[in-house]
Model the fold of this input.
Amino acid sequence: MENYRADDCLKPKQRVLDYLGTAEEAIARLESSEANQEEKTKLLARLQSLIGEELGTTPQV
Done:
């Protein structure tokens, strides 16, 4: 991940946008993978949890 400090201020909006872009790529790779459905479901749930932690919310499945 990049450094998001500018003049000692965090840039949370840009950080979250970059994080979500990375998450979208991971989801696309996961959906096209050969993993079984149960494994995909677990990994997607974990990814959603990580996104929720980054945003400070808990996304609904």
In short: The chain has a mean pLDDT of 71. Residues 26 and 57 are 20 Å apart (CA to CA). DSSP finds two helices and two strands in the chain. The longest strand covers residues 5-6.
